[in-house]
């Protein structure tokens, strides 16, 4: 087969010298493959680097194939500090939510765009929320952000809503603030602009709950890393 563009999402040791690798490709979606001999340090450091654009192909059939050829002609996206954790979070979402061998070029493009944004030190929270929104949309879980799921009325900036992944936002009493989101924050996410600290905080909480729903109990270890880093930073302060 011809070379296809790809990124490594995760790799782990396999037998004495090989790696099991999860990759995302533009033409074939999520692929699980064996990279034989890649645990030799020189090969691994140059070709199995995370956030590295590459071209590769493989042979075999089924859910586990074997890496055949790999070429690299671009520099890796340089993600430092929190940006690196954001990249690991996106990688983990893709591994746990994408079906195997199902091409989703829009998701691949959204991932590459998010890596570029993190590389250029753009707002990490906005980058993650827009990536999550795009990912859910092309997986068939598009968010309803413009109308009340129960009444059909347009979302009102001044009202509060409870968002359920299966249905969408439902207006709640103003006294019910916990786990709700304002119409204003829903509008910001729909328009993908004019975010502020308040709307980003509410959107993050809503997206976390929504993604948890679709993960169906699968843990996200990158979230634990975020929590541990924040705890360490707070103790240092």
UniProtKB/TrEMBL annotation:
InterPro entries: ARFGAP/RecO, DNA_rep/recomb_RecO_N, NA-bd_OB-fold, RecO, RecO_C
Ranges where the DNA replication/recombination mediator RecO N-terminal domain occurs: 3-72
GO biological process: DNA recombination; double-strand break repair
One Gene Ontology term, aspect cellular component: bacterial nucleoid
Keywords for the protein's UniProt record, in alphabetical order: DNA damage, DNA recombination, DNA repair
Cited Gene3D superfamilies: Nucleic acid-binding proteins, Recombination protein O, C-terminal domain
Pfam families named in the record: RecO_C (PF02565), RecO_N (PF11967)
Alphabetized NCBIfam families for the sequence: reco
Family to which this protein belongs: Belongs to the RecO family.
Function: Involved in DNA repair and RecF pathway recombination.
Protein name per UniProt: DNA repair protein RecO
Organism expressing this protein natively: Methylophaga aminisulfidivorans
